[in-house]
């Protein structure tokens, strides 16, 4: 059997898992299809140990299909529009991103946590949850269990934020715009931002907070580009030395994650096209395909993850996720107060 043919059973398995997860994610957006896919994959692995036939396709999906998903993700970013509309929220966004990255780094040093999990939780908390983890994981060469661990932590605090923040915003006396900024900067994943803002709009008819929160969240998403590029160059520099450049073992093509450059190129193409009159809906199918590829990749990651070991090692990552989440929330509210927005 050829190498390409060997991948078909695993690819098909991940595709079949992704289909019901896609619809479950639409029914329960606060959870999201990627989380369902990871959970189903991990449960299947508990009872199905011999995946030899499917393993090549599972490995391909968790690595290459995930990279293709990130490239296609770029077609959902209109850089000029997001930057223009979200510029007013930039000081808060930058503050919360910096806070999460600093907190995760400090806790990584204090708790002696694995560096990859720390990076994924820090980036996932600060930017856009699962999408940021999906973009960052291949760059730092995180393994499937590290990705699953980070996604699980982000999911936990996404759900808590979506449930708690609308009532908390009311107790704090936030304005509609203030809550939109709070939800857009302090909730990790886009689906949970939408859930929290929609709940607020339901409690405050005519508030239209969902639009504000979504724009702030999309502006925050732009940070994927500089952060992944910095990590890519850092990883390349580190691997250049560990590979032993003096023995001519170094190859930029082999170790630099070029898919990140294609992701940036996709964002630029979208921006240029929309600035020249192309309707943004043209790129909608590519955005949808990107999301489905992420669900497939998460199914593959679940199939490669030992749920028992994941639960046993979950204490420190959950504490890190909680600290990032709490500090981001406090900084978001604090910056609004300092800027006179509350």
What shape does the CA trace take? globular
The N- to C-terminal Cα distance equals: 64 Å
Structural class: mainly alpha
Helix fraction, binned, reads over 70%
How many strand segments? 0
Rg of Cα set: 20 Å
Give the overall average pLDDT: 85
List the helices and strands and how they pair.
Blueprint: H1 3-27, H2 33-47, H3 55-73, H4 79-86, H5 90-111, H6 115-126, H7 130-140, H8 144-172, H9 176-186, H10 190-203, H11 209-221, H12 224-243, H13 252-255, H14 259-275, H15 284-303, H16 307-312, H17 315-338
Helix pairs in contact: 1-2, 1-3, 1-15, 2-15, 3-7, 3-14, 3-15, 4-11, 5-6, 5-17, 6-7, 6-8, 6-17, 7-8, 7-12, 8-9, 8-10, 8-15, 8-17, 9-10, 9-11, 9-17, 10-11, 12-14
How would you sum up this structure, described in words?
The protein has 17 helices and no strands. Helix 5 (90-111) packs antiparallel against helix 17 (315-338) and helix 8 (144-172) runs antiparallel to helix 9. The protein has helices at residues 3-27, 33-47, 55-73, 79-86, 90-111, 115-126, 130-140, 144-172, 176-186, 190-203, 209-221, 224-243, 252-255, 259-275, 284-303, 307-312, 315-338. The longest helix is centred in the middle third of the chain and has 29 residues, at 144-172. The chain is mainly α and 342 residues long. The mean pLDDT is 85. The protein is globular and about 60 Å long. 49% of the residues are buried.
